[in-house]
């Protein structure tokens, strides 16, 4: 049975000179350990929703799988926090040697392997998609309206994929990478081509997020927050349009502005 993304915690709130007993909504933090071909592969600290999507998206972004057909079986035991994945091939033959890793929700541990396979799994965008300013504002508004769990807890990242018009799917997670992996996994499950899609994101566009977007294959990333300098340089190199500070009928275009019309 899938766990809840939030739980109710009794707290004491101080407000206007008074202590008040009440209940607060807290984001659930859930460790999920992945075993690939019976070998321990990684532990992801995540929100306990859409876990199969998360597993598929994570393995695809790491270059372990390329399509749904690469996976023979996924057995998820979310009561104990384990997921056993059997591939249709030997991971060692096609991808080299892996060791156990802890991937935290804040992504702080990701730097230990961040540059190992980025060159092999990142993609230079070939998208020809173009979007208007009105579509940018509409998509960001839709993301914020869908972010009900964030409004309750203040502790989740939100992301969505759209074609700029009709297609729209939203996912939340305590880990910003995880939210993107869930979207990637959903598209793999549904066999949805991603190259012409737009990624809408609630948080800062860091270099890690830009790399993750390139691994997914999108050509446009929209955020209500700021990018980092390295993210901008990577976006320029990988032919990705990065748009930030989308708020109050204003935004900044940091790279490949030709896609915004």
UniProtKB/TrEMBL annotation:
Coiled coil (UniProt feature): none
Pfam families associated with the record: FdhD-NarQ
GO CC aspect terms: cytoplasm
Biological processes, Gene Ontology terms: Mo-molybdopterin cofactor biosynthetic process
Transmembrane segments: none
Subcellular location: Cytoplasm
InterPro entries: Cytidine_deaminase-like (IPR016193), FdhD (IPR003786)
SUPFAM superfamilies for this protein: Cytidine deaminase-like
Listed GO MF terms: sulfur carrier activity; sulfurtransferase activity
Claim: Cytoplasm is one of the keywords in the record: yes
Record key words, sorted: Cytoplasm, Molybdenum cofactor biosynthesis
Entry annotation: catalytic residues: 107
Domain of life according to the entry: Bacteria
PANTHER family in the record: FORMATE DEHYDROGENASE, SULFUR CARRIER PROTEIN FDHD
NCBIfam families assigned: fdhD_narQ
Membership in a protein family: Belongs to the FdhD family.
Function in brief: Required for formate dehydrogenase (FDH) activity. Acts as a sulfur carrier protein that transfers sulfur from IscS to the molybdenum cofactor prior to its insertion into FDH.
Protein name stated in the entry: Sulfur carrier protein FdhD
Organism: Macrococcus carouselicus
């Amino acid at each position: 049975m899938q766990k809840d993304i939030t739980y109710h915690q009794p707290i004491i709130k101080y407000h206007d000179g008074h202590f008040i007993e009440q209940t607060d909504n807290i984001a659930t933090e859930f460790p999920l350990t992945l075993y690939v071909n019976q070998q321990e592969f990684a532990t992801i600290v995540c929100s306990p929703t859409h876990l199969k999507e998360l597993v598929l998206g994570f393995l695809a972004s790491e270059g372990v799988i390329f399509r749904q057909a690469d996976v023979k079986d996924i057995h998820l035991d979310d009561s104990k926090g384990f997921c056993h994945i059997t591939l249709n091939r030997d991971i060692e033959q096609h991808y080299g040697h892996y060791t156990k890793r802890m991937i935290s929700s804040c992504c702080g541990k990701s730097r230990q392997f961040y540059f190992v396979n980025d060159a092999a799994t990142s993609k230079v965008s070939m998208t020809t998609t173009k979007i208007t300013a009105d579509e940018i504002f509409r998509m960001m508004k839709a993301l914020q309206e869908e972010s009900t769990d964030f409004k309750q807890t203040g502790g989740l990242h939100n992301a969505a994929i759209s074609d700029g018009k009709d297609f729209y799917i939203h996912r939340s997670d305590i880990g910003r990478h995880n939210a993107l992996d869930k979207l990637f996994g959903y598209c793999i499950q549904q066999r949805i081509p991603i190259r012409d899609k737009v990624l809408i994101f609630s948080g800062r566009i860091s270099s890690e997020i830009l790399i993750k977007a390139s691994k997914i294959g999108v050509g446009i990333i929209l955020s209500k927050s700021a990018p980092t300098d390295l993210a901008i340089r990577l976006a320029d190199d990988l032919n990705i349009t990065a748009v930030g500070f989308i708020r109050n009928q204003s935004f900044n275009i940091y790279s490949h502005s030709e896609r915004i019309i």
